Amino acid sequence: MVEIHDPLSEEITRLHAEHHRYAQRLEELLQKPYLSDDEQLEEVRLKKLKLHAKDLIHALERRHEAVA
After folding, report:
1. Which of 26, 6, 22, 30 is nearest to 54 (CA)?
2. Residue 36 — φ and ψ, nearest 5°?
3. Whose CB has fewer CB within 10 Å in the chain, the N or C terminal residue?
4. Cα–Cα dist 51/6, whole Å
């Protein structure tokens, strides 16, 4: 059986894992009663990164469906 290398699927999988890591860290921050200035900046940065990863996932999934 020949294994087909699908870089698009691999990238989607990688982005899902990245998105999940951002979500986990955000959840950790949100459990704290108070965030330091650095943690507040990290929260904003993580939200932006999480949204960007989600946008990329959706774009790649649409492209993957068009190719398939």
Report:
1. 22
2. -70, 170
3. N
4. 24
DSSP assignment string, 6-40: -HHHHHHHHHHHHHHHHHHHHHHHHTSS---HHHH
Q: Which pLDDT score is estimated for 50?
A: 98
pLDDT digits (tens, 9 = 90+) for 5-18: 788 899 999 999 99
- Cα torsion 31, 34, 35, 36 to 10°: value is -150
Mean of pLDDT values over 13-34:
97
Q: Report CA-CA distances (Å) from 53 to 12, 23, 34, 61, 66.
A: 9, 11, 27, 12, 20
